[in-house]
């Protein structure tokens, strides 16, 4: 499980850097300032959680079952949260109104919170 988590973390990190550069350079001429800021929010959260998963994959302080639950929550959270933000922010380029998908953004955010809370519970439990 550790290898899977670590590789996923690295892939999320690499794609966050690529998307960040893409947003800063290629999208700059095509999106409004507000849409760029929205896009950057998706990139930031993706990178934060890539680092989070990297920690998770490398730590021995969390048992396998909890690692799996945290990994699944964080991965789905990033896909839903950042993914929907990318789609919503690029509406003017794609011409597709992804607004109905906007409901998955808070679901993704909730999954990210759940992942953090599972890890918190594990750490508190471990201290006892």
UniProtKB/TrEMBL annotation:
Q: Which InterPro entries match?
A: DUF423
Q: Where in the cell is it found?
A: Membrane
- UniProt keywords, alphabetically: Membrane, Transmembrane, Transmembrane helix
Q: What is this protein called?
A: DUF423 domain-containing protein
Could you tell me the membrane topology recorded for this protein? Multi-pass membrane protein
**Which residue windows are transmembrane per the record?**
45-62, 69-89, 101-120
Q: Which organism is it from?
A: Flavobacterium sedimenticola
For whether the record's keyword set contains Ion transport, the answer is: no
Q: Please verify whether the record's keywords include Transmembrane.
A: yes
Q: To which protein family does this belong? A: Belongs to the UPF0382 family.
Which PANTHER family has this protein been placed in? TRANSMEMBRANE PROTEIN 256
Pfam family of the protein (one): DUF423
């Amino acid at each position: 499980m550790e290898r899977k988590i670590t590789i996923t973390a690295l892939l999320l990190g690499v794609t966050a850097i690529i998307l960040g550069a893409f947003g800063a350079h290629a999208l700059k001429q095509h999106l409004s300032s507000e849409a760029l800021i929205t896009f950057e929010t998706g990139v930031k959260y993706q990178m934060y959680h890539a680092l989070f998963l990297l920690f998770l994959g490398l730590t021995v302080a969390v048992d396998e079952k909890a690692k799996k639950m945290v990994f699944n929550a964080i991965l789905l959270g990033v896909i839903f949260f950042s993914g929907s933000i990318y789609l919503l922010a690029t509406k003017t380029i794609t011409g597709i109104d992804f607004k109905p998908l906007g409901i998955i953004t808070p679901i993704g955010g909730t999954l990210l919170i759940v992942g953090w809370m599972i890890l918190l519970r594990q750490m508190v439990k471990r201290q006892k």
